[in-house]
Specification:
The protein has about 260 residues and is mainly α. It has a domain of about 50 residues. It has nine helices and four strands. The protein has a two-stranded antiparallel ribbon. Strands 3-4 form a two-stranded antiparallel sheet. The radius of gyration is 29 Å and the shape is elongated.
């Protein structure tokens, strides 16, 4: 019995010592940074950093704030001068964004540390008005992170109702505004492809309702080149069906594949 008591006491001492060592290590890391305990980060990193951030591999505090996690202000410290990104329509909203980790992920090795997460845009306040109204706290962040990790689909209806697609995508509009700016009427946030879309018959003569001719068709080029290549000297700009096929604009009836501009 005495031996059992001694073993129990020894175990308690070991557990207490381990707890004290752990607490001491945490305190040292908290006040002195990652370099104060060499090699410790290798036990906790969920994966390697991307190539662009690899130089920070053993400097966790460069991005992580103790008890807070990754804070936006830390990201902005390094990336606030990204003028090229702030100048492009699709990324200009970064000038006022208040949450980075919703779309930017790390510790995934060679993969691109960016994912298009429309729910994250909705969460930070990118509303239909096209303005950002960031929130001080984001209580759903942990839930959304877990959902993304598990591959659970996001709430598409909420995104379609709350986001202004044209504010980011109007410069990629193949319809050239012929269908307006309500992209969500036909498209989803997961893909631009429309599974139910069926192109009108090749015999249709209403092409101009959806398709706008290129600038060259409104210049002398149309009479001197386009009409002659197709062998249709009397075709009008709005009569797309006379020269073009529906499989590709450059597949010209009677002439085959042709690309001049």
């Amino acid at each position: 019995m005495a031996r059992v008591k001694k073993l129990g006491w020894a175990y308690q001492v070991l557990i207490t010592a381990a707890a004290l060592v752990g607490a001491a290590a945490i305190a040292i890391l908290y006040y002195s940074g990652s370099a104060s305990v060499p090699g410790w980060s290798g036990f906790f990193q969920p994966g390697p950093l991307s190539a662009r951030h690899a130089f920070l591999n053993d400097q966790c505090e460069s991005c992580h704030t103790p008890t807070q996690g990754v804070e936006t202000v830390t990201c902005i410290t390094c990336h606030s001068s990204a003028a090229a990104d702030l100048a492009k329509q699709t990324t200009a909203f970064h000038a006022n964004v208040q949450d980075c980790r919703g779309c930017h992920v790390e510790h995934q090795g060679g993969t691109r540390p960016t994912r298009m997460d429309h729910s994250a845009l909705l969460r930070i306040g990118w509303h239909a008005t096209g303005t950002l109204q960031g929130h001080a706290t984001i209580p759903r962040q942990i839930i959304d992170d877990l959902a993304g990790y598990l591959g659970i689909p996001v709430s598409a209806p909420a995104e379609k109702d709350g986001l202004n697609c044209a504010s980011c995508h109007s410069n990629q509009d193949p319809h050239q505004k012929l269908f307006g700016t309500e992209c969500a009427t036909c498209h989803t946030t997961s893909t631009w492809q429309i599974a139910t879309f069926l192109h009108p018959s090749p015999t249709s003569r209403e092409c101009a309702q959806c398709h706008q001719a290129p600038p060259s068709h409104y210049m002398e080029h149309f009479r001197m080149v386009s009409q002659r290549v197709a062998g249709q000297e009397h075709a009008q700009v709005s009569q797309c069906y006379i020269c073009h096929k529906t499989n590709a604009w450059n597949d010209i009836k009677g002439a085959g594949w042709y690309k001049h501009h």
